[in-house]
Amino acid sequence: MRIVIAEDNVLLREGLVLLLTSDGHEVAAVAGSGPEVLPALLEHRPDAAVLDVRLPPGFRDEGLRAAIEARKRIPGLPVLVLSQYVEETYAAELLSGGAEGVGYLLKDRVGRVDEFLDALARVAAGGTALDPEVVSQLMTARSDPLRALTPREREVLGLMAQGLDNATIATTLVITERSVSKHIGAVFAKLGLPPTDGGHRRVLAVLAYLNS
């Protein structure tokens, strides 16, 4: 997989390069500031981009802006955004263009190598990878409609929103896949969401609801 990295922290940037190349990926380009990101993405058109939300010169939302603009110019470009803290507004803005091929992780998650690489692989394949803390805040923001859900249904919804499939949800919650399917059906019915046949459309529907 060819990847473009945008990160101003030299140690983290070099750590990402080493981690990804050691895993067999090619780092096509690295950027250390906001103005460098979009040109690098347009030139190299990578299989995925790993971008810090806040980059020089302003340290506000330069990476996020570049990610959103890049996805407009390169439809479907998989983007995994990294953030030091949960910034609900940024997560919502990134997802507003569609959740397919989008990830939003806290930087602490990078240290959990297997989780980070799994998230990157899901995003590159067109899936969704949201940090559990981000999902938690998005769900809290919509707490009133979610009151109809049982505690187990809320757990299932949260894992769905992270981009996990039924088998992984079943393993995580130590229940059967059949039980997961029943809980998902109940979640969609209670939230008034149209039925889906699984896959990314299910995740998109859940995120659209949480982010509406």
Write out the strand line-up for the largest beta sheet, numbering strands in chain order. Answer: 2-1-3-4-5-6
Q: Beta-strand level of the residues, as a percent range?
A: 5-15%
Query: Whole-Å distance between the termini?
Result: 33 Å
**Biggest sheet architecture:** 6 strands, parallel
The count of helical stretches stands at 11
Rounded mean pLDDT score: 85
Percent in helix: 40-55%
The best one-word shape is globular
Structural class: alpha/beta
Give an account of the 3D structure.
The chain has 212 residues and is an alpha/beta fold. The protein is built from 11 helices and 6 strands. It has helices spanning 10-22, 34-44, 62-73, 88-95, 113-124, 132-141, 143-146, 151-161, 166-173, 177-191, 200-210, and strands at 2-6, 26-31, 48-52, 79-83, 102-106, 128-130. It has a 6-stranded parallel sheet, with helices on both faces. The longest helix is centred in the last third of the chain and has 15 residues, at 177-191. The protein is globular. The model has no long low-confidence stretch (mean pLDDT 85).
